[in-house]
Design goal:
seven-stranded parallel sheet; Jelly Rolls; 26% helix; 11 helices
């Protein structure tokens, strides 16, 4: 991970975009989130994100969404736009990214490009070089998007195409409930197809965020203008294996099986046994949730505590993430400072002479204009300077003249240096 994170623009901020934004904000990055329903983005705005209205079906809306940022990384996460030719929306977005001199453009696609699964056991491994299915309607739509991205890449814009497996994870907000199989098993809506013999791949949301951010770093450091990766975990498996394990785990009956030839058009089977070897090799990435067991354990923990752990990755690049629910790397905590009144000099607090460094504690919702530079010791704040707003966490340096607002549930602690120090 780079020492300084470039600004990010997230076009289409649903489940994936929200978790990506949360991760970037936790690391102190400048983030702009764009969507039609901007009211749903208020929690991200409270954490320091810039919110921008975007209607992808309208001409010339992508350019303004990216203006004012210094060579951003643009992430495209917009579902199909009704009423537009195939590939047109993503072509406009990538063209706008090229015009603002974006550092990279990342398209979140789908492994649906490989077509349907019915009629075979689909046990063969699929990778980036496997044949796609342009005659399949959904695959054709995604392939048109990929072709649009590739055409803009020829102009020099560094681009990444991610062919995603099914995404699962815990609830992120009231309007973003948990995603995955467990919710449908609970509701009684889930079915096995043909006895559950088809292979399916999946990716846990936090690992997907790691992939997106690692692919951005790789795009900036490599000489390639277009990289394509299939994105799934290390253990694609038959549907029956996963569902039997999960049903037993939740102490619920295994869902019934249906004949795949009798299901509706909305339930076309597109399971695949995705091979993520290139992804891990080129991005130098190890998944923290390599199988469904680790991912479901993390969802258990989120449901039990009712909270979503922060996903800080800034210091994770120095060491490879380890597997399991505790694989999220976070910066080591700073040693606690002695209890002191806000505004007290650090040297005097420690029993010595004055050092020109003051402790500053901000309660939730409290704001302060800094007269000198500072550093965050604990908590998460929103930093406003020269019209730009970004979130910041522990170990982040704050420039003189910035306005700091505590957005966290607990008190934030900063070390404020004298403007003469």
């Amino acid at each position: 991970m780079q020492q300084t994170i470039p600004p990010f623009v997230i076009l289409g901020c649903g489940y994936v975009g929200t978790r990506l934004a949360q991760s970037l904000l936790a690391d102190g990055a400048q983030v702009r989130v764009c969507a039609r329903r901007t009211t749903l983005l208020e929690p991200l705005h409270a954490q320091g994100a810039q919110v921008h209205y975007l209607e992808a079906s309208r001409s010339h809306q992508f350019g303004p969404a990216m203006l004012g940022l210094d060579q951003p990384i643009v992430v495209y996460s917009i579902p199909g736009v009704i009423g537009m030719p195939q590939g047109e929306a993503v072509r406009r977005a990538a063209s706008a990214a090229l015009r603002v001199h974006a550092r990279a453009f990342i398209y979140l696609g789908s492994s649906a490009v490989y077509g349907r699964s019915e009629g075979n056991s689909n046990s063969d491994w699929v990778d980036e070089d496997s044949s796609t299915a342009p005659s399949d309607p959904e695959a054709a739509t995604r392939l048109a998007d990929e072709a649009a991205v590739a055409s803009i890449a020829q102009s020099g814009l560094r681009t990444v195409v991610l062919r995603l497996a099914a995404i699962y994870g815990p609830a992120l907000a009231s309007h973003l409930p948990a995603r995955g199989v467990r919710q449908r098993i609970r509701s009684g809506q889930y079915r096995l197809f043909d006895g559950g013999r088809y292979y399916f791949s999946r990716i846990f949301i936090d690992d997907l965020v790691r992939v997106i951010r690692a692919s951005a770093d790789h795009a900036l450091s490599s000489g390639s203008v277009l990289s394509t990766y299939v994105v799934g975990d290390d253990h694609p498996c038959p549907q029956l294996e996963y569902v039997t394990w999960l049903s037993d785990h939740m102490k619920l009956p295994v869902p019934p099986s249906v004949d795949s030839h009798l299901v509706g058009a909305g339930q076309v089977i597109r399971g695949r046994r995705l091979n993520n070897a290139r992804l891990k090799r080129e991005l130098k990435l190890a998944l923290s949730y390599p199988t469904y067991r680790e991912g479901e354990a993390q969802i258990d923990a989120c449901e039990q505590t009712g909270s979503l752990p922060p996903l800080r990755l800034r210091d994770a690049a120095a060491s490879t993430p380890q597997g399991g629910p505790q694989g999220t790397s976070t910066p080591p905590a700073l040693p606690p400072l002695p209890t002191a009144q806000s505004g007290a000099d650090l040297g005097e607090t420690l029993g010595g002479t004055a050092l020109g460094c003051q402790l500053l504690r901000l309660s939730t919702g409290e704001r302060c204009d800094l007269t000198g530079p500072g550093m965050i010791l604990a908590g998460y704040v929103s930093v406003s300077r020269r019209g730009q707003i970004e979130g910041a966490g522990p170990r982040t340096l704050i420039p003189s003249g910035a306005s700091v607002f505590n957005i966290g549930p607990d008190a934030a602690e900063l070390l404020l240096f004298s403007s003469k120090s």
